[in-house]
Write a structure and sequence with these properties.
Layout (H helix, E strand, L loop, with lengths): L1 H6 L4 H61 L4 H10 L3 H24 L2 E8 L4 E4 L15 H9 L3 E5 L6 E10 L2 E11 H12 L2 E7 H7 L8 E3 L6 E4 L15 H15 L9 E7 L2 E11 L5 E10 L1 H33 L5 H40 L5 H33 L6 E3 L1 H16 L4 E7 L7 E3 L1 H18 L3 E8 L6 H4 L23 E8 L33 H11 L3 E7 L3 E9 L3 H4 L16 E5 L3 H14 L2 E5 L2 H10 L4 E5 L7 H14 L10 E5 L4 H10 L3 E4 L4 H17 L1
Parallel strand pairs: 13-15, 19-20, 19-21, 21-22, 22-23
Antiparallel strand pairs: 1-2, 1-5, 3-4, 4-5, 6-8, 6-11, 7-8, 9-10, 10-11, 12-14, 15-16, 16-18, 17-18
Helix pairs in contact: 2-9, 3-4, 10-11, 11-15, 12-13, 13-15, 18-19
Length: about 775
């Protein structure tokens, strides 16, 4: 940058102004990027709380429907309710009211422990018939205070939504009651705001609270009941229920009571005005040297009147990281600004004295650039020529002369490619080390493929290739097949280069004993498996011994100590066709070391060479095969789970997670198989992949929900369906819930997250 400014021919002061302007532009870019990231974080939090709130309403709707159909719509409850609602005699009506209360008292008490706040029956004239929480109060007209009741009786269909009340605000589900084809009244099932928040904390493990407008509380709630509310610490214009819910005794909370109170006090100073707009928003704030977010989702009544908010507090590590990055960037840029400004001043002072040195430096850089450009051109030219000629010749009928040309062209191309590949691989290893990607594979196949490649190149020449794989070698082991193939190619390439006749042999076996050099290694086996305790680096059965033996020219004894050094060759007097970069064996040694192994070489001039290596390759039956691993610890859960997944690797992964936890698993490859399996057996939960052949997850979910509704016999709780999908966009998640799924787990699947979601869904099903 300094050279650019200097070459521009600007005056000293112009250079300073230009540099300050450039830094101001960079400041602007950094702040804009920070604001964009914050905006993305806010959108993500708002979408999350929206999906969670809608899923809570869906869950309560499903279970209140089940409660209505099993507890109210069945005899003798419906018979007693109908007789009481259809009679006009107050004495007879009172008798049936008491009978209905006796029938429902025990289940009502149990339901209140699960979050149910009110079970209330009404006449067709919208008058109270029986309040289970206050049975002595009945006969009052609800037309002006229960709009959900009025709508249900008028439209003869279920109504639900948040609605203010005389004692508390609640999520209300009102169902019309029919008896022998006649509409006779309605029943209201209410879950208090406290119950809704408690459920959200239990399912989503967060800090959820609900606040309501002060005017709503003072105008709607009975004066004798207003003591159940207190002003919220966030704003004096909002109230919160006083109850045990505030003591954080339920599970799922991530922040302490004291910390939550400090967050709310900080919110009061920052955002009191925003709460009066009743629009969703997110605020980041700093408390106790940490950053937290408050996500506010507005609540509207059944008549679309704003009544309050659902709030969620969580630690904002992502925001804190972005803020720290911005501060660090600004500080670095500021320091850089001063340093560069000082550099400009120094350049101006020393301009005349350093003119000659600058010219020399420019000349030196120009020479270097020209050299690199020429070398690049010289390397690219033969590669392009080789590839071009090979392509042309392959399109013609080859004569003997053309075959000879093609052979030499291919040899030249392969040599150049090998040189470039070695240099690039060596540079990459020097910078980042040897990366490994271990999987279950067959070493025998890797050996055969590598030997076949070189045998095909020899074109039935004087050199023969042999393979000797001992029976003790297991079919499957756990290692990086790409790296092992790279080792074999380097060793076979050297053997092929220096062997003009005779034999090249590859031997593979389990070692009888480990070399002293291997026993002395400090083996880090964590990269082999998630359970490294199953790998025994001291057991020869967990190692492989690979040898590449040739009858080539051999290596002099005084050169054996240098062949693994970088850019070294055993004999510089060899003809040009046998020379290389001197990096192949250095790369091989680095890979073998990453395999926790060691390589040896034995050679005699004129008699050939033997390269032998021992490396850790545990058999998968003892180290990695999930189906054969012993159970780790006690089984945590039980029950049959049905899984729909078409990818074999994902099937194995999910099955392993669930079976280790104690579940019994049945896997289907598409949605149609899953629907058939669900109809034939009992399951406690379904894990549904979204994208599958034949029938996708959306269609399968809709079919299951349809079959549940049409199934004969007593109604049953709907089976929890959990989506497993790599699509994490909001539209994709929304489509899952709209299809009838109950929860969502993104891929790649994390074991603990999956088990927690399954457990919460099963608890939900068992609650109702």
């Amino acid at each position: 940058m300094l050279k650019f400014i200097k070459k521009a021919g600007l005056t000293f002061y112009s250079q300073i102004i230009l540099w300050i302007a450039l830094n101001a532009f960079f400041y602007f870019l950094m702040i804009k990027n920070f604001n964009d990231e914050v905006s993305l974080h806010k959108k993500a939090r708002l979408h999350t709380i929206e999906l969670q709130f809608k899923s809570i309403i869906t869950h309560f709707r499903q279970h209140t429907e089940l409660l209505y159909s099993t507890l109210i719509e069945k005899p003798p409850q419906i018979d007693v309710l109908a007789r009481g609602l259809l009679t006009t005699d107050p004495v007879i009506q009172g008798r049936y009211r008491r009978q209905l209360q006796d029938l429902l008292s025990q289940p009502y008490e149990q339901l209140t422990l699960m979050g149910l706040k009110q079970l209330h029956f009404h006449t067709v004239q919208n008058r109270s018939y029986l309040r289970m929480h206050r049975p002595a109060l009945y006969g009052d007209d609800l037309s002006g205070v229960r709009h959900t009741v009025v709508a249900a009786n008028r439209q003869h269909r279920p109504q639900f939504g948040f609605e203010e009340g005389r004692i508390f605000n609640a999520l209300r589900f009102v169902y019309p009651v029919r008896y022998q084809g006649r509409h006779i009244g309605s029943v209201e099932i209410s879950i208090s705001a406290r119950g809704v928040m408690r459920t959200m904390n239990s399912l989503y493990h967060g800090n959820y609270r609900a606040i309501f407008a002060k005017d709503l509380i003072l105008q709607k709630v009975f004066k004798e009941e207003q003591s159940n509310y207190k002003p919220s610490a966030i704003s004096p214009d909002f109230y919160i229920e006083q109850n045990r819910f505030d003591q954080r005794v339920q599970s799922g909370y991530l922040l302490s009571v004291e910390l939550t109170n400090r967050i709310e006090m900080a919110l009061r100073q920052l955002s009191d005005a925003r709460f009066h707009q009743f629009k969703p928003f997110v605020i980041f704030l700093k408390v106790d040297d940490s950053y937290y977010s408050c996500t506010a989702w507005p609540l509207f009544s059944f008549q679309d009147r704003p009544i309050g908010y659902i709030l969620n507090y969580e630690q904002a590590d992502d925001y804190a990281q972005q803020r720290q990055y911005l501060i660090a960037s600004v500080l670095i840029l500021t320091v850089f600004l001063f340093l560069m400004t000082g550099g400009l001043i120094k350049l101006e002072i020393d301009r005349q004295n350093q003119a000659a040195q600058q010219l020399q430096l420019i000349d030196a850089l120009s020479v270097r650039d020209r050299f690199l450009a020429n070398m690049s051109h010289e390397i690219r030219t033969p590669i392009n020529g080789v590839l071009g000629l090979c392509e042309l010749l392959q399109e013609t009928q080859l004569s003997e002369t053309q075959r000879d040309y093609l052979y030499h062209l291919q040899t030249a191309g392969e040599s150049l490619q090998a040189i470039i590949a070695d240099v690039l691989e060596f540079s990459r290893m020097r910078q980042r080390g040897v990366g490994l990607n271990p999987v279950v594979c067959r070493v025998r196949d890797i050996v055969v493929e590598s030997v076949d490649f070189f045998q095909a190149r020899s074109m039935a020449g004087p050199v023969q290739y042999e393979i000797d794989v001992a029976e003790s070698v297991d079919e499957k082991v756990f290692l990086d097949p790409g790296r092992l193939r790279q080792v074999l190619f380097n060793l076979l390439g050297n053997a092929d280069k220096f062997t003009t006749e005779g034999c090249i042999k590859v031997c593979l076996r389990r070692p009888d004993e480990l070399w002293p050099e291997v026993q002395a290694l400090d083996c880090n086996v964590k990269w082999y498996t998630s359970s490294p305790s199953l790998v025994d680096p001291h057991n020869p059965a967990h190692w492989l011994e690979l040898a590449v033996i040739d009858t080539g020219i051999g290596i002099p004894p005084d050169k054996l100590g240098h062949i693994f050094s970088e850019f070294e060759q055993a004999d510089q007097s060899l003809e040009i066709s046998r020379r290389g970069t001197g990096l192949g064996l250095s790369i091989t040694r680095a890979i073998v070391a990453a395999f926790c192994g060691h390589i040896r070489v034995e050679s005699q001039p004129g008699q050939g060479s033997r390269f032998c290596l021992q490396f850790l390759a545990p058999p998968c039956t003892t180290a990695t095969d999930p189906a054969r691993q012993p159970e780790e610890g006690p089984r945590e859960h039980s029950g049959r789970i049905l899984v729909a997944e078409d990818n074999p690797l994902n099937q194995m992964l999910v099955r392993t997670f669930l079976e280790k936890a104690g579940y019994t698993v049945q896997v289907c490859a598409n949605g149609r198989e899953l629907v058939q399996a669900w109809q034939e057996a009992e399951f406690i939960c379904i894990l549904m992949d979204v994208q599958m052949p034949v029938m996708d997850g959306y269609e399968a979910t809709r079919e299951i929900r349809r079959l549940e509704q049409s199934k004969a016999g007593p109604p049953q709780s709907p089976i929890p369906i959990i989506a497993l999908s790599a699509g994490v966009l909001d539209d994709e998640k929304r489509a899952c819930f709209e299809a009838g799924m109950n929860s969502f787990v993104p891929k790649p699947v994390k074991r603990q997250e999956l088990l927690e979601v399954i457990a919460s869904q099963i608890r939900w099903r068992n609650t109702f």
